[in-house]
Design brief:
Oligomer: single chain
Structural class: alpha/beta
CATH architecture of the largest domain: Alpha-Beta Barrel
Radius of gyration: 32 Å
Strand order of the largest sheet: 24-23-27-21-20-19-8-22-26-25
Number of strands: 27
Distance between the termini: 100 Å
Length: about 550
């Protein structure tokens, strides 16, 4: 029995000794550290994963608040009875300076109180440079907007008051032009009053266009073996009265029509006009329409082709009575590698110097849309859903229109799966019910930073044709809208202005973010700012003067 007790005692002592040794090892082996002592990251903003190795302790990560590290996830972890490795994501801002910089991140062992560090090194950038020259001034820009969904075509897909507020309020997308249809039947005119009045309260310019001259005034003619509705010449006076009646009706109901068109797309099937007929109508009835205080728009052809614009431009009386030269860009405008398109582009952009500048008149792009792939059954082929497509079509076309002396850019339907906000069509996907689409944000960049300003000269990047830049002068600011259509990030773009600014800021939209605040380095003399241009992005910059 004593022998058994002795053995048990010995075993007990051995267990106690073993336990004590384990406790000591457990204490000695606890640690928290990074697997690397330093890492390098590129000069543009981004994120990097670092690894922490730890054993038998909880830990916490800290860094100085005034560095370029913007977020660390997770910042705490560990266990007192376990060991493991943890991947930690750090986010950092762009380095817009020529010099490199670094920042330390610390991991603290909460059991022992000691800490280890990793140094994040970020290289500097050698920025591209552009210079803004406000002394060289071009066209005044009236603004940006789109077509109000017409009740006679989209009765089940109309724009709500909340959606008008989303698009036209200063806190929303900031649009300021609304296009209305002059319905052939007067009984439909009331349908647009409420929405137009609300947009007008937010400062919107309202203009209207007729599609249908009404059945009572029309006849059918054959043009190139195709039947067209056509306004009888003997009914021109009644048609002019129809437009004036619409203007007065809207005014009496609180909507001030800024301009009205003679005809939407007179070269199409809605109501066909020969080019000379547009000239004749403007000469004979333009004064009657303009006497209402409303500006007259013509000819608003589908392709803004010379066959329709030149007759107006070359007839002194018709041109004098035309306040706004209007047209659409459906026959191409941006692909300058195509000879036909380039000729059209050069003709349209040449109108400013040829005729408009000295007359004080302007040209407006009053309709276009981009919906490639809409008939595909495979969603991956819906180009209108792709960010790069939106930027390379709408973004590029607005930019080129501004460079081409355009004073207003007006899209087709505001609310549609290919428009500015989504509708109830299944192709709107997650943006159904009036949520903003990517096109909506692209136009908002121009609406918020270009409306009411005058385009001014800015130098180009000669070695990078993917970077599209226009600049504008406001009452107390200088603004720029910059598009990077390339697949490569430009680490820094230095923008030089001739005067000291009070402040400078920027916003950015790319595939995964919309209208977010952008890092920008403001120089000590307040005469320049440097901003990074991520691939496939649009950035608006504002210097407050």
């Amino acid at each position: 029995m004593k022998k058994i007790l002795s053995v048990l005692t010995l075993l007990s002592c051995m267990l106690i000794s073993c336990s004590s040794d384990d406790d000591n090892n457990y204490e000695v082996d606890s640690f928290c550290k990074f697997t690397e002592s330093d890492i390098s990251v590129p000069n543009e903003s981004g994120q990097k994963v670092i690894t922490a190795e730890w054993a038998y302790s909880e830990w916490e990560i800290t860094t100085a608040e005034d560095g370029f590290i913007t977020n660390i996830t997770p910042s705490k972890g560990g266990k007192s009875d376990y060991k493991n490795k943890t991947n930690i994501t750090i986010k950092y801002s762009a380095n817009l300076l020529a010099t490199s910089r670094s920042q330390d991140i610390f991991i603290t062992d909460k059991k022992r109180g000691n800490r280890e560090k990793i140094t994040i090194k970020q290289g500097g950038s050698v920025p591209e440079e552009i210079t803004v020259n406000p002394q060289v001034r071009y066209q005044h820009v009236v603004g940006f907007g789109g077509m109000y969904n017409p009740v006679i075509w989209l009765r089940g897909n109309l724009i709500s008051e909340e959606e008008i507020t989303k698009m036209y309020s200063p806190d929303g997308l900031g649009y300021n032009i609304l296009r209305l249809m002059v319905y052939p039947n007067e009984s439909d005119w009331a349908a647009d009053i409420k929405g137009a009045k609300l947009a007008q309260q937010y400062g919107a310019t309202i203009f209207a266009c007729p599609w249908d001259c009404t059945d009572a005034l029309s006849e059918t003619i054959i043009v190139n073996n195709k039947e067209y509705k056509h306004l009888k010449k003997e009914n021109y006076q009644v048609y002019a009265d129809h437009l004036v009646k619409y203007i007065n009706y809207m005014k009496n109901n609180g909507v001030n029509i800024y301009a009205i068109s003679v005809q939407n797309e007179p070269d199409m099937e809605f109501t066909f006009w020969y080019p000379q007929e547009v000239v004749d109508f403007v000469k004979a009835y333009g004064d009657q329409i303009r006497a209402t205080g409303v500006k007259l728009m013509s000819p608003e052809a589908c392709g803004m082709q010379s066959e329709y614009t030149d007759p107006i431009l070359n007839d002194a009386e018709a041109f004098e009575k035309t306040d706004i030269l209007a047209g659409h860009l459906y026959q191409g405008f941006t692909d300058l590698t195509n000879g036909y398109v380039k000729n059209r582009h050069d003709y349209i952009c040449g109108l400013y110097d040829k005729k408009l500048k000295n007359s004080g008149k302007t040209w407006w792009m009053t309709e276009h849309l981009f919906n490639d792939g809409e008939k595909e059954t495979n969603q991956s082929l819906w180009k209108f859903r792709q960010w790069s497509y939106n930027l390379e079509t709408l973004g590029k076309e607005i930019h080129m229109s501004m460079e081409g002396y355009c004073s207003a850019y007006v899209y087709w339907y505001l609310k549609r799966f290919y428009g500015m906000i989504g509708d109830n069509d299944d192709r709107s996907l997650s943006e159904k019910g009036g949520k903003t689409l990517k096109n909506g944000y692209i136009m908002s960049h121009y609406a918020k930073y270009v409306n009411g300003r005058q385009r001014i000269q800015v130098s180009k990047l000669e070695n990078n044709s993917d970077i599209l830049i226009t600049a504008y002068s406001g009452q107390n600011d200088i603004t720029l809208v910059i598009i990077n259509n390339g697949n490569t990030t430009v680490g820094g773009l230095k923008i030089n202005i001739p005067v000291a600014a009070k402040s400078c800021g920027a916003i950015e939209t790319y595939e995964h973010e919309n209208m977010v605040k952008k890092d920008i380095a403001f120089s000590s003399d307040k005469k320049s700012a440097t901003v990074a241009l991520p691939a496939k992005s649009i950035i608006s910059v504002k210097f407050d003067i």
